[in-house]
Design goal:
two-stranded antiparallel ribbon; mainly alpha; globular; 4 strands; 13 helices
Length: 346
Amino acid sequence: MWAGEREGREQVVEEEEDEEGDGDEVGQEGDLRKAGERGEGRMARVSTLADAVLPLIRTRSDLYRYSAANAHGRDMHEAIDILEAAIRATDPAEIYSVTHKALASSLKVIARADDSSGIIGDACRRLLDLHPRAAAAARTPVAKLIDWMMKFQFDDDEVDYFELDPVAYAPALGETGMKAYRKRLADVEAKLGPRPAERWNSGHSHEWFTLDWNAQRLAVLDHDVDAIIRTHAKDRKVAAWLEDTAEAFEEIGEIDLAIDWAKQAADFDRGHQSLKAADYWCGLLEAIGQPRRSTRGSRCSASGPRRPQRPGCTRRRASPGRPIATRSWRLSQRVRGMRSCSRSSP
């Protein structure tokens, strides 16, 4: 038996399995499901892996209490540890099936939880990182995967604060699938009508945000320098946007451009965004072995800190040239680091 099983949760598994609506039901017995969602019609009994993972993800307990939410969040991370440990020895179709169900359930959990500490959110991000890799390994039907991606991004009425990274899904979708996905995005944009001057004043602000996010990620996927500048730097009025541009260039291996844009962000003003960008700029110079240079008269000394940091708050960055499919992981690490720093504030 898998480690981490919890007694008394089997009923939750059976009840919630019917709620997910991802095409896995095959009868009223509750003990048969489609394996791997491959569309092959192959039937299998509920796997031991699902029995071990899903009860730790799902719960009907009251999670509005901070302590209860944190305790359940730790159970969720234990479940994902079990899932990740099983990857090498388990059929990819089963890994994808359990991952897909766990992700759907985790979103239902966080929608009704006090996740002030971010533990449940981090578990959701781990599943979001695993999902595209599991889909690629399982050779999930492309049309079904695209339908799910569109529904996740545009039709989820409960949770809209997670993004999908089309760069990460590119291996699972393939060239034909990416063309179909781009067309679906274009269809959504066409239905929205003219782009508003200010997105947040639009009744479709979420849709415009999601389309803009996809445009950024697709520019990175295409290694399109002009598109990266257009979608990330925008009107160049915010230091953080300039740093975003630099990070996109770092992601595709354009380190000289990354250094240039990071320097622009650092020189933008003396605000906290520019200080953060200066830290990133100095890190890029270190990574390629260049001596640190001064910015606006402030020198990044080799011995002193680049900017004030609280104990234990260090930025985790990928090395230049890291495969672009790891972008979602890098983003989740940045969010976790920022949360860690904020929680340590006096």
